[in-house]
Amino acid sequence: AQKVTQAQTEISVVEKEDVTLDCVYETRDTTYYLFWYKQPPSGELVFLIRRNSFDEQNEISGRYSWNFQKSTSSFNFTITASQVVDSAVYFCALSEAFLAAGNKLTFGGGTRVLVKP
Amino acid sequence: NAGVTQTPKFQVLKTGQSMTLQCAQDMNHNSMYWYRQDPGMGLRLIYYSASEGTTDKGEVPNGYNVSRLNKREFSLRLESAAPSQTSVYFCASSEGRGGTGARNTEAFFGQGTRLTVV
Question: What is the DSSP letter of A114?
Answer without folding.
Answer: E
